[in-house]
């Protein structure tokens, strides 16, 4: 997924993993995967030129995925807004949450789900 982002954009995509991701329940693993994929798609569409860092933390009973982009050059592409809504709904269905906010010039998506 991250190599595809790099091959499509030419932009760096750093991945940091802390903890064991393979032992996650199937629904948590799917939420993490789909959120990462959608967040990378959003960066590619809305912030061409942005680099991205994905950070995964597995803690005792929770895991967290954070996707932060550097901002790049804002594009004029607009979406229907269902990407973020879908990510949030998927998290809530399994007892997790998703929040987003602007960072220094970029954007952050943070998913937290039970592990």
Write the layout of secondary structure elements.
Blueprint: H1 2-9, E1 13-18, H2 26-46, E2 52-58, E3 62-69, H3 82-93, E4 97-102, E5 107-114
Parallel strand pairs: 1-2
Antiparallel strand pairs: 2-3, 3-5, 4-5
Helix pairs in contact: 2-3
Number of helices: 3
Cα-to-Cα separation, first versus last residue = 22 Å
Secondary-structure element order, N to C: HEHEEHEE
Name the CATH superfamily assignment. Histidine kinase-like ATPase, C-terminal domain
CATH class term: Alpha Beta
Strand order of the largest sheet: 1-2-3-5-4
Spans of 5+ residues with little confidence (pLDDT < 50)? Answer: none
Q: Rough shape?
A: globular
> Can you tell me the number of structural domains?
1
Please give a handful of descriptors for the protein shown:
Heat Shock Protein 90; 115 residues; 30% strand; alpha+beta
Structure description:
The protein has one domain (2-114): Histidine kinase-like ATPase, C-terminal domain (Heat Shock Protein 90), CATH 3.30.565. 36% of the residues lie in helices and 30% in strands. The chain is built from 3 helices and 5 strands; from the N terminus they run αβαββαββ. It has a 5-stranded mixed beta sheet with strand order 1-2-3-5-4, with helices on one face. A hairpin with a 3-residue loop joins strand 2 and strand 3. Helix 2 (26-46) packs antiparallel against helix 3 (82-93). It is globular. The relative contact order is 0.23.
């Amino acid at each position: 997924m991250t190599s595809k982002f790099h091959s499509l954009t030419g932009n760096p995509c750093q991945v940091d993993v802390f903890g064991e991701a393979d032992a996650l329940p199937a629904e948590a693993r799917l939420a993490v995967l789909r959120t990462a994929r959608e967040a990378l798609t959003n960066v590619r569409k809305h912030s061409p030129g942005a680099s991205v860092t994905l950070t995964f933390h597995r803690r005792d009973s929770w895991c967290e995925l954070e996707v932060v982009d550097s901002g790049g050059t804002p594009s004029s592409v607009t979406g229907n807004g269902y990407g973020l809504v879908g990510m949030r709904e998927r998290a809530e269905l399994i007892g997790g949450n998703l929040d987003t906010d602007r960072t220094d010039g970029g954007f952050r998506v943070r998913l937290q789900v039970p592990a």
